[in-house]
Every structure is written in C-alpha cells, then in structure tokens.
Amino acid sequence: MKEIIDALIKFRNERDWEQFHNPKDLAVALNVEAGELLELFLWKEAEEADKEKVKEELADVFSFAFLLAEKYGLDVKEIVLDKIEKNGLKYTVEKSKGTAKKYTEL
Amino acid sequence: MKEIIDALIKFRNERDWEQFHNPKDLAVALNVEAGELLELFLWKEAEEADKEKVKEELADVFSFAFLLAEKYGLDVKEIVLDKIEKNGLKYTVEKSKGTAKKYTEL
Amino acid sequence: MKEIIDALIKFRNERDWEQFHNPKDLAVALNVEAGELLELFLWKEAEEADKEKVKEELADVFSFAFLLAEKYGLDVKEIVLDKIEKNGLKYTVEKSKGTAKKYTEL
Amino acid sequence: MKEIIDALIKFRNERDWEQFHNPKDLAVALNVEAGELLELFLWKEAEEADKEKVKEELADVFSFAFLLAEKYGLDVKEIVLDKIEKNGLKYTVEKSKGTAKKYTEL
C-alpha cells in the first residue's frame, strides 16, 4: 500500500495540488466518486454493471480514501482490522448469522 | 492488502453474509459509509472533524471498497496505478499545475 | 407541487420508464444526483460554485425526491412540516441556538 | 412551497443557524441525508424499506434541497420544469422509450 500512496502523493505534488487537499474536500471528493461508482448500477441488476467502468470508478474511490488516510497518518491495515474487531462485538456470529439486520435491530 | 481482504471475507463468511453482498448493494453500502464519513465534516472547518470517528468511518469505506474489488477479482494496486497513469493524460502537469479545474475546463 | 409531480409522471410514462422506477433505484438516483450537485463545490469556496449548474443539478435532485414521494403516496408539505416539528424537540432553541452540534452532543 | 420554505427559514433563524448554512455545507448536508435515505434500502429488495423511516429521511432531503433553492433565489417549480424540457431533448421519446440507457449511450 505504501507504493500506492507514494504514487498518489507524487501525482498530487507534481501538480501542486496539496493546497486543495484538505480533509473536508477529500471527503467530498470521496463522496463524488462513490456516487459515480453507484451510477454504474442505476436502473440495473447487480450483474449488469460495466466491469471496466467499475474498475475506474473504484480506483478513484480508493485514491481519495488513501489520500485521506495519509492526511491523518492512519495505517489502513490497522484501522480496518480494528474496525472488524469492533464490528464483531456489535454483530456477534450468534445474533447476526444469516440476517442483514442492522445491529440496532438485532 | 491480502491480509485485509482475507479478514473481511472471514468476517462475512462466519455470518453467512455473502448472500447479501452482490456488487450493487456493496456499492450502495460504500455510498452510505462515505456519507457517514462526510457527516463528520458537516458545518465545520476541515480541521475540526473528530479524528477518532474519521478513523472508524474511513475503515468502513475501505472495507466495502475492498469487498467490491474482491467481488470483481480486481487487484487494488494495479487499478489505482492504472488510473493514475490515465489521469496523467487528462491532467498533464503543464495544464493542471496549481489549478483545481476539472479536465473538461482546462 | 402537484404540477411538478404531474410533469415528472408524464415524462416518465411517455418513455415507459415506470418499470425502472422502483423505490430503491429512485433512492440510488437521488444519491447519484446529490453527488453531482456536490461536485460543483469540490475544491472550492462555497461562493465559487457555478449557479447555472447548481440550478440543473438541484432540479435533478428535486425530480427524484418528488418521484419517491409520489411512489410512497407522501405529501411533501406534510412530511417536511412534521419533520420540522420533530426536529424542534431534538433541537430545542434553548440548547441549539448558535451551535451546529448534533443533537446527540448537545 | 412558500409555506415549507418559510417554516424552514423560521426554524433556522430561531436557532441562529444561518451562519452555518453556506451553499457548500447545505450540499454536504443534502448528501448526508440522501445517504441516510439510501441506507433504508441496503441489503433489501425495493419493497422492504420501512415506509415510516423513508418519510423522515426524505423530509430531510427535501429540507436541505429547499434551503439550497432559497439560498440561490431559485424557484423550484421553474427549475424542475426547465430541466424536464431540457431532458426531453436528450431523451427523446423515440430513442429512449422502454430503455434505461444513459443518453450518452442511446
């Protein structure tokens, strides 16, 4: 992942874009890209989305997610594994197996 | 990243949640989480968001992004580096240095 | 508002699009359009967005919001006034005056 | 609609919230609420969402959409009818009848 983040930072710095990349706008950009990804599924069954386009929009989502992580000095592996552990307490196997209910309704 | 994806898949399979994880709902989930992340910046200056909460919401965003990548058999490093290359053609250093304009307006 | 909804329904029916307009896809469409509206503010100060484009994207947001309301047989005036009343209990003037804090933190 | 907007403005002014309601944060708020509405459909068939909750989240979406319209001095009926007319040119009945394709692919 270090390699990805380094490439993103290099791209950003070559264009002198750090001045625009405050965390709020990065979160806005992430939402914009998540919306573009979602559009690929609009009015469609799950299988019908164009895989080539999914690849590109998902890459954009990851880019802003990595830039946000970098901005806060967060280690992606650590925060995801921590969250999985935390979610394991909210969604115990016993209560949540086979159901998509939110933990507030379990 | 393999380790992260393996942990996410294990969590999902223990709960028998693969049945819900079609790509369209994963894209919906990603948008929901991106919205929760964005809420942390609402009515605030960029610096005022709660870092602990950002950590958790960003972890959720990454989780669904990784699950989508896995669903399509995509290699995250490859798709991000490919996209950076592609973006380099739309946003050449010459035209885009120091400006946040969209490529359609450069 | 009846006039707006009638025009939207006429447009939809002339194109035989009711078959695609289930509530879930309408909610997806609303998010996609909200993302396009948000993009107009990306990397910018609040005043810098292009008003002509805001007008168009906001119109799209309203269109899908009205179509969703119609789908559920909801009266827009009634649901907004009800929600204002409800919010008045969560955000009493006393506690929330001059602060942007969420009610859970007041 | 004047009545709705007046009620929203009154609610806002009583709490001295106009200071937070710049167009960018209103667009952010609209996205956050659109995400909460979307969550009601997550992992579900279109018919399974809770109508009472849809009502509330849709009311929130409308509230921020109306506040944005008001901020820009836009007439909601006018902008939606204008957009319908514009969309009629992109999506002619002839080309778009019975298909959910985007105009760029028609």
UniProtKB/TrEMBL annotation, chains A, B, C, D:
Record InterPro entries: dCTP_Pyrophosphatase, DCTPP
Pfam families associated with the record: MazG-like (PF12643)
PANTHER family, A to Z: DCTP PYROPHOSPHATASE 1 (PTHR46523:SF1)
Protein name (database record): Nucleotide pyrophosphohydrolase
Organism this protein belongs to: Salinimicrobium gaetbulicola
Taxonomic lineage of the native organism: Bacteria, Pseudomonadati, Bacteroidota, Flavobacteriia, Flavobacteriales
